Amino acid sequence: MSLVTEAVKVWAFAARGGIMNRRNVFAVFEMLFWPLVGLFSVGLLTRFLELGGATVSFVLIGAVAMNTVQIAQLDVSYALLYDVWAKSLKHGFIAPIHLVHVILGAGLVGFIRGLVVFVIMLALSIWAFDMDLRQAGWTGLAVFFLGLFLVAVIEGVLVLSLVLLFGHRAEITAWAISYLVLLLAGLYYPVTLLPTSLQAVAQVIPLTHFMEHFRSFYGFPLSASAPLARGFLLSLAYLAAGYGLITLSLRRARQRGTLLKLSE
Amino acid sequence: MDTAIRAEGLFKTFHSGWRRRRQPVLRDLHLLIPPGTIFGILGPNGAGKTTLISILATLLLPDAGVVEVLGLDVRRQAGKVRRRINLASGAAKFVWSLTVVENLRFYGRLYGLWGRTLAARVEEMVALFELQEYRHSPFETLSSGLKQRLALAKALISRPELLFLDEPTNGLDPIAAQHTREEILRLNRQTGVTIILTTHNLREAEQLCHEVGFLGEGRILAQGSIRALQTQLGLGDRVLLACAGPLPQLDCRQLPGVLRCRQNETHLELVLDHSDSRLPLVIQEIGKAGGQIKTIRVEAADLEDLYREFSH
C-alpha cells in the first residue's frame, strides 16, 4: 500500500466532484445565487434597522459563515450522494477503498468551493456594506475559513452517516440538523441571547467559537475563553467521532443490506 | 489455492419494518467453486442469488458461516479480497453525467491505477468493448447495450481474478445479450478469470457455465453441469417414434443415453440425454430388431423443467 496509491484513490473522488461541479449548472447556481441572496437580504436588513458598522459586521459574519459552511458541506455529502442518486453505490464499495479516501477527496472539492464562496461574500461585504476586514487580518481570515471548513466536513460526515444508516430519506433530516447547528451557534446574534440550557449546547458547537473569535476583532465579547483552542479541539473530537460513526454506519449498511438497497 | 469460493454453513437473515420481521434468505448454504470456471447461480426470484453474490463480493456481511474468496476470509480480509475481485450487474448504473472514459478513469483510480497505466488500461477497455465511438458520451445518453458494455469494461479495468456478474444480460435485447455472452466466454478462455454469474435464463447458463448451482430454500439444492443435472433428474430431449408395423421386442432402457422410456404396440416414447448424438444409434437398434420407423418427432429438452424440478 503506497502513498501514491492512497493519494490516487483520494483524487478519484476529488476529480469526479470537480467534473460534476463543472458540468452541472445548478452547482454554479447554488454557489452564487443562494449566498448572494443570503448576504444581501441580511445586509439590507441591517440598513433598514440603521445598525452601526460593528453590528453590521457581526451580522454579515454570520451570513458568510452560514453560506461557506453549507456549500463546503454539500460537496462532502455529494461524495456518496452522487452514487446514491445514480444507484451505483455498490461499485464504489466493492473497490479497495476506505471512507477516508471518500471524505478527503470530496473535502478537497468542498475546500475549493467553500473558499470561492468565502472570498466572494467577503468581497461583496466590503463593496456593498463597508465591512472592514483589516481588523481581522489575513491570519484571522485564514483561521476563520479553516474553522468553517472543519465544521462543514463534520456536518458532511454526519449527512453521509445518516444516509448510510437510513437511506435516501435521511438526507432532509441531515440537512435540517445543519440549520439547527447554525441556529444554536449564534448565527446573527450572541449566544448569550439563547435560553440558558441552549447556551450550554452552543458551547459544544465549534462554529460558535470560530464565529466568536472572528467577531472579537470587531470588539464583541467572548462567551468563553480561548475560542480558537476550543473550536479546533471540539472539531477534532467531532471529526474523530464522526469518522467512528460513519465507519459504524457502513458496517451496519453491510449487515442490513442498505448498500444493495441504495443500488437498486 | 484449490477453490475460488468456499462457503460453509452460510446464514443470512434480513429484518424489515418497524417490527423487524425476520426474512431468512440463506440457510446453511455450502458451496465450493473451483478456480478458472464459469459458475452459474440459478434460482427463482427471491431465492437469494443476489444476496449470495453480494456476500461473496464483500458488499454484505454474513450472519454466520465460513466464507472464503480466493482463499481469503470475507470478514477479516475484505480489503485484500476487494483488490482481487470486481462486479458488473445487469441494468448497469453509473453516475449519469460522467462520460464513458470518465467513469472508467474514476473506477480505475479506486483500484490505485494512475498515470500511463490508467490511461493504457482505459484505452484497452474502450477498445475491447468497442466503445471508441462513445468515449465522450455521458452515461445517461448510452443505450442499454452500451451501458452493459461499460459495466463489463469497468469490472475488468482492475484485471480481477474473480468476476461477479449479477444477471449480466438483464434488460438487453437478444443481439446485445448474445454479444455479452460471447464476451464472457472469451474473457474466461483468454484470461482464465473465474466468473460467477447469476441468471434466470437456463439457456444462457447452459451456453456459458461449466457448472451451475441451483439455489432454493436458502441452500444450494444441486450442483453440477446442466447436462449432469438433467441426467440426474431424468430430464432430457423427448423423442416420439412411430413404427409402420408392430414395435419389435426391445429393452429400450438398455440403450445408451435413454433416461426414460414408454411404449405401446406401435409407438415408442423416449427421453434421451442428448437426442442429437443418441438418436442415430437408437434408430439403428430398432432397425436391427426388425422395426420399421414411420415418423420421428423430437422435442428439445425443456430446461424450464429442470428449473421447476429444483425450485419446488
Q: What topology does this entry show?
A:
The complex is a heterodimer of chains A (264) and B (312).
Chain A: H1 3-23, H2 25-48, H3 53-86, H4 89-93, H5 99-129, H6 137-166, H7 170-184, H8 196-203, H9 206-216, H10 227-256, H11 258-261
Chain B: E1 5-16, E2 21-33, E3 38-42, H1 49-56, E4 64-69, E5 72-73, H2 78-84, E6 85-89, H3 100-110, H4 115-128, H5 144-156, E7 162-166, H6 174-191, E8 194-199, H7 202-208, E9 211-216, E10 219-224, H8 226-233, E11 237-243, E12 258-263, E13 267-272, H9 275-288, E14 293-299, H10 303-311
Parallel strand pairs in B: 3-8, 3-9, 6-7, 7-8
Antiparallel strand pairs in B: 1-2, 1-4, 4-5, 9-10, 11-13, 11-14, 12-13
Q: Could you spell the SSE succession of chain B in H and E letters?
A: EEEHEEHEHHHEHEHEEHEEEHEH
Indicate the multimeric state. heterodimer
Radius of gyration of chain B: 24 Å
Helix tally of chain A equals 11
CATH architecture of the largest domain in chain B: 3-Layer(aba) Sandwich
Distance between the termini of chain B: 35 Å
CATH superfamily of the largest domain in chain B: P-loop containing nucleotide triphosphate hydrolases
Broad CATH class of the largest domain in chain B: Alpha Beta
H-E order of chain A: HHHHHHHHHHH
Secondary structure: number of strands of chain B: 14
Q: Give a short account of the largest sheet of chain A.
A: none
Binned strand content of chain B: 25-35%
* Sequence stretches where pLDDT stays below 50 over 5 or more residues of chain B: none
**Could you say how many structural domains of chain B there are in total?**
3
- Number-wise, the strands of chain A total 0
Strand content of chain A: under 5%
Please report the distance between the alpha carbons of the first and last residues of chain A: 32 Å
| Class computed from helices, strands and strand pairing of chain B | alpha/beta
